[in-house]
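User: I'm putting together a teaching handout on how multi-component assemblies are represented. Below are the sequence lines for each component of a complex, exactly as they appear in our records. Could you produce the 3D structure of the whole assembly as structure tokens, so the students can see both representations side by side? Please keep the chain order the same as the input.
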Amino acid sequence: MSSNPLVRLGRAAAISALLLSRGSTARAEEPAISPPRLSRFVEASDPRPAGPQERASVELEVDVAADGAVTGARVIRSAGEELDAAAVAAVKAFVFEPATRDGAPMPARIRYEYVFAARAPEPPPPASATPARAAAVAGVVRDRDSGAPIAEADVLVTTDAGATHRAKTDASGAFRIDGVAPGPARVIASAEGHVPLRLDETLDEGTLTEATLRLEATPDPDAFVATARVEAPPREVTKRSLEREEMTKVAGTRGDPLRAVELLPGVSRPAAIGGMPILRGANGFDTQVFLEGAPVPLLYHFGGLTSFVHSRVLDTVDVYPSNFSVRYGRKLGGVIEARVRDPRTDGLHGIAEASLLDTSLLVETPVGDKLSVLAAARRSNIDAVINSAQSNVDLGITAAPVYWDYQSVVAFKPTDADRLRLLAYGSSDTFRVVFKNPDGGEPAVRGAFGGTSLFHRVQLGYRHRFRGGSEQNTELTYGRTEELGEFGQIGRARFANDTLQARSEWTGVVSPALRVTVGLDLLANHFAGDYTGIPVPPDEGGDPTALSTQRQISVRADDWVLLPGAYVEAGIRPVPRLLIAPGVRADYNDMIREGALDPRLSVRFDVTDATAVKAGVGRFSQSPDERNVVAPIGNPDLRMSHAVHASAGVEQKITEALSASIEGFGKWIDGAVASTPEGRPPFFVNAQEGRIFGAEGLVRVKPRGRFFGFVSYTLMRSERRDEGRPWRLFDRDQTHILGATGVYRLGRGWELGASVRYTSGTPYTPVTSSTYDASADVYSPRVGRPMSARNPAFSRLDLRLQKTWTFSRWSLAAYLDVQNALNAPNREGFFFSYDYRERQGARGLPILPILGLRGEL
Amino acid sequence: MNRLPDRLASFRVSRVALLALAFVFGCEEVDTKGWLVDRTRVLGARVEAEAEPSRASIAPGERMRVTWLVAAPGGTGRLGWAYAVCAPPLANFPEPRCAEAVLASARGSSDGELVTMELDAPPAEAAGESDALTILAAFCEGGEASLDAARFEATCAGGAAARLAAGKIRLAAAGANRNPELAPDAVRFDGAPMAPSTSRAGPCVADPAAPVVGPGTPHVFVLRFRGDERESVEGGLEDVLASHVVTAGKLKRQYSMFEPADPAPKEVSVEWTAPPGGEVPAEGRLVEVYFVLRDGRGGAAFGRRTVCVRP
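Assistant: Of course. Below is the structure of the complete assembly, with chains in the same order as your input.
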């Protein structure tokens, strides 16, 4: 060991490689994104004259391909022409273990500081020429700041002769490598969540050289430091992802990432309590939400209050407003995919949060070296508010709204290449209210209304990473959903749904120019239950109707539906800057005995390092809902609906933090299921067409400093044509959609955020007159031209102020999240007088301040 | 795939949740004012077999009557009317109109709030698979009514807007049904019995059936059901919807319900506030209160009471 290791420190390593991409960090405890790791170091030929030399370094920007090869290296900070050239030549011969996202290899760009070590005077020649005895290297790898040992760190020793020796640190951070040839050697330590570190040592024969390697943690995203960025692989033409900062700090969302997606381009506003977001003009029911690849039945508690999963459990949220990959199917609108992070492995952590709406707790800890566990639960507090306010004599609330959800993750990593993960989550919404007397103008609205919406999911997932970047993912998910609904005189529903999904995907890196993904996706649904009541209104474009005048229907179901699917997708790079991704997906529905074959293609070309153009086209298919197929209320002859998506756009990186994109898109829907006029038999037919055109833009400042935010704008028109009728507007069509959000870190723990949303008013079908129904004592509205009127524009300003106190072992944050801070009276519809001659706007959410406290350990 | 319960949950539970949240956050309840006769209004239709007026289910070819209750704020004058009878379409959300053949139709005129139309029920085969018929009616103040049954539109000879109303005629094939009855002593006003009234709208006149109250004063109507006036059906007694409307003042609500599981007898009370002084002339104002009962199976009954409001 050198008398002064610091002198010999060849601190070669990425000074900032890595991290965060799109809401994912490369920290050890959140490894969904992992940076490239140096697996083969090549020493540069030092061009400096012989003799003692000072330490010198060259800072480089290095492109690492998905197969780990270096495809480019550029000098960022020069140390002189000769040293620069030598460093570039050496770095181009490096080999990395590629960066990955959720296990999938991806290209990355990192910064690397190549250090030419200080050179001491030449040692005297050896006294004899006897064969050298092997040397040994041992030491400890620690976190530079905390001094804590780092387990599972990779230690690589390379010698001038080209020999490579590997070891992993144990739980105490210690390592030892024997049998190393004496002489100059590089000792490189790397660990997830840390910047790799290199020591240049001269190993003496028969001697154990000891070293302590202190690794610098990768920059904490919460610290707003400048970092390099690992871009996700451009698998889809349009993929909007939220960074973790954006997910949890957007004003008006209470830190709910699945609410934050509503501000992204192409996302129209759903109805006030409408459930699914409207992605590029598609019906909300045509969009699917996935959690870790498994479809989930709902996105928000009570249709919009807050999402069903704890925000701090989520790792990434990706929104595919159209042209999504063949990995996703059975829907023709869009896809939202949320991914759960692994539990942290660096000790016990917890988050406790309480607000007016709900209270939650999250705990996570490692159990041994290879196992880690996370559990989170949340329950609403609304019932405490409602129960204290139920004095109204006409409305008896017997069970105030209560929602709860839970998530648990157990991750087991027996080896570097394998991960076994057990994921369990569930959600429940319960509510019951009794109208003691019939509602004004509608006697059917009386009695008990309410229901329970409950689901559980258990998923077992196994991932194996092969050498060279290939990967195998298999997930088996069982789910149960129970729906109990009681709607006074209108209807009663009781359904249980058991879901079994098996999904297996293999991604193979055939060569640097070809990556292939093949997957099987089997979904089996068993649904059983009954419904008695009035017919369910159409999903879209329905007219106002009187409830009391409708007939009663009854349906009982007990069926299995099998929906096998398979897909294959290739990523072809004929030249490094061009990615062509053709794919095809096959789906089958055994209930309607019909299959679909959907080809899709996307192309992306990096014109420069900062500019990319992209385009895509694809076919998408969707089965009819079971309720529309089941006799006697449905049509067993219904077929699949289809859509063609096309889009093209440009992405421009302006600075490290600032980027912009613009994209045009179109969707053409054919054979969509629509209700027949007046709901006559066969009640539903594949007779609706749709056409959607638009353009959207996004300017984004990433969380790299005190400020982050984005502005999005969408210009769009979404139309439908029912059988035999002219084109009309989609009932959630919004011509202009403007969203903007920003968060500014004021310092001293203060943070201020604001979000603005402005959209065109949604169309509606005006009521022109009414007729009296003497059998029910209600008026039935008569309507004008479908969707020929619009509500006023919608606007909303949300504000968020947060103060965080940071203590040595924990932090406490207090926040005030104010939705609709200006109390804008946005109209969501109408209340009508008894005979529809007069109407009054039904306003949406009034100003809603939510105060909350959050403690983090 | 989306399932039926998902839809129901998203559509209906959410609406109820919205109601509850609106309640929590203090949104105002919207009063549709269905309890107010603020213009000429059809308030109900009673179908009865001519041979047995208490029976609301009609046999094919049987002579029958349909009596409409048409109220107006100042009393109902002369009305021209027209009707058409047809089989209803099988549809989830049928529009009230005669899309198929009209089985019976006529025009006429009458005076007062009860408009009676007499006809012969069509033969069984004319109704097809339906166990009920639809009757469409148009009423015109001061002129003849002309009805287009296929579009359910009407014109009045005098140029006034027609009142359009649809009703249902229960056929015997659906099972027998009896019209509910509103007993003479079923209504109490501020604790005192309230007899049926024959007083006409206008200034108050001394009438034991019209209690006198002051403008703007609060009062309570109580509607009492013994239970034996309701028929037994599967699951217990049939339910009865009571509609109550007034020609002036403010009624707490439009509907009361007698559910199958309710105990018998059952009383419901409805608060009423007399019209303010500005709406009451010096000679007083007679306020009419109408009660209409419906059993949900084609049966109906009418009741009328009056209150005298004097400054």
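A couple of points students might notice: Chain A touches chain B through 91 residues (CB under 8 Å). The CA atoms of residues 451 and 485 of chain A lie 4 Å apart.
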